[in-house]
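Side project, low priority. Logging it here so it doesn't get lost.
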Amino acid sequence: MARRNGTETKLYSHVRPKSALAESFRTLRTNISFSSVDWPYKVILTTSPGPEEGKSTITTNLGVVMAQAKSRVLIMDCDLRKPVIHKYFDLTNIRGLTNLLVQDLELEDVVYATEVEGLFVIPCGPIPPNPSELLGSAKMVDLLEKAAAAFDVVLLDAPPVIAVTDAAVLTPMVDSALLVL
C-alpha cells in the first residue's frame, strides 16, 4: 500500500483481493444490488454519525469491488471540510468538485482515472467557505444527473451527519444512503 503525506491508503479490496475484508466489501456490493432490483441505485451517499468511523474507507473499497465487477464507478469527495479521498488514490487536491461547482468546467475536467480499471475519482478541490451552500446548489443537482448518465454508479463520500448539515443537504439528491457505524 502506498503512502502519501504519512497517510496509509486503505484500498484493501484492490491490494488484497482475496482477503476476508475484500470479501466483506463484495458482500456489501451484492446486498446493495439485491436491495435495488426494480430500481438500480445509481447515486449512493456514504456518511457516518461522527468523524473517523470509516466512511471513506467503505466508499473507496465499495468503489473498487464495484469496478472489479465491470461497472464504471465514480467516487466523488463531497466532504468539503476534511477531504481524504484524494489520499487513498495518491492524487492532488488542487482541482476537483469545488472547482466544478464554482467555475465553468465540464465533468471531464476534474475526473481522474485510478489504477483500478473502471474506477474514477473527483477529489474535493480547494476547501470553500460555504460547503453546505455549494452542495445544496442547483449546479450540484445538475452535476449528479450528468455523473449518473456517464457512470454506472456514483458514490458520494459525505461528511459526518451529526457534525454538519452537508450529508442531509445531499440526501434528497441520491438514490440511497449508507450510514457507516
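Brief comment: The first helix runs from residue 12 to 15.
Revisit when time allows.
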